[in-house]
Write a structure and sequence with these properties.
The protein is mainly alpha-helical and 258 residues long. It is built from seven helices and two strands. The longest helix has 42 residues.
């Protein structure tokens, strides 16, 4: 093993010596700051602490009318890391991540809906009360289902993950259906008062599909004709080279005749 490089720990002493020998006229401004806050002298790094997933649950206590809040620690298996990854930051996991992964795995098309990308403080729980799924000032999306499910798990006694998921999904489907009905009714009322709408997305998609089908049909006809021509040429070529049955063989010279 080689010697330890302590150059970074002695950077202040090096700067003072260079000033003393006249390498530069003024000391750098960071010399006094390093004197007040010196670099760490410990050269051995300790591995980062592993964080466990803590879940809040409400359970009913026998003989008591009031449920009790319990914090469960989900022990996760600590995998041995390679030497090159031993000091990397520890991966942080939250319960919402597991709920979010499950919801969007079952509803992938929710990710295709237009979204407003705005940076927030991440403290939506302070501005929204997830006793209900629909919140004022917030658009209904998959994140609403995740937060509603998490609220049910944290506040309803003896609530399981599957039951909370079913309740949140049922409320979500009902609100989505209500939005679709309101949208159709608004369009019908507008048309009744003289509004003229353009083609819908479905109609535009059907037109594009019909154009593509006609283009493909024309291409298929051309390819079929070319294939027939190649097949005919391939069948007729051997007869031309070796001579068909209608072709007469040339007469042999008299010297070779028997």
């Amino acid at each position: 093993m080689g010697k330890m490089n302590l150059t970074a720990l002695r950077v202040r002493q090096t700067a003072i010596r260079q000033k003393a020998v006249g390498k530069f006229k003024m000391l750098p401004k960071w010399v006094d700051a390093i004197a007040d806050i010196p670099p760490a002298q410990v050269t051995v790094r300790t591995p980062a602490q592993q964080h466990q997933l803590v879940r809040q649950r409400v359970t009913s206590v026998p003989g008591s009318s009031k449920p009790q809040v319990v914090f469960e620690v989900q022990e996760k298996r600590i995998k041995p890391k390679k030497a090159s990854r031993l000091f990397q930051p520890v991966e942080l996991k939250y319960e919402e991540d597991l709920l979010r992964k499950e919801f969007f795995r079952d509803h992938p098309w929710e990710l295709a809906r237009p979204r407003i990308v705005v940076e927030t403080t991440g403290k939506d729980f302070e501005r929204h009360n997830w006793r209900q799924l629909q919140q004022p000032g917030k658009r209904l999306d998959g994140e609403s289902v995740v937060q509603r499910q998490l609220w049910l798990l944290n506040n309803v006694p003896d609530m399981t993950k599957s039951n909370a998921y079913d309740i949140a999904r049922r409320e979500f489907y009902r609100l989505r259906l209500q939005e679709d009905i309101e949208r159709r009714v608004a369009a019908e009322e507008a048309e009744a008062t003289g509004a003229v709408f353009g083609l819908s997305r479905h109609e535009i998609g059907m037109e594009l599909e019909n154009k593509e089908y006609e283009r493909w049909k024309q291409w298929a006809k051309t390819e079929s004709m070319m294939q027939d021509q190649r097949t005919a040429a391939f069948i007729g070529a051997p007869e031309t080279q070796s001579g068909g049955p209608e072709e007469q063989q040339p007469d042999m010279p008299e010297a070779y005749q028997a």
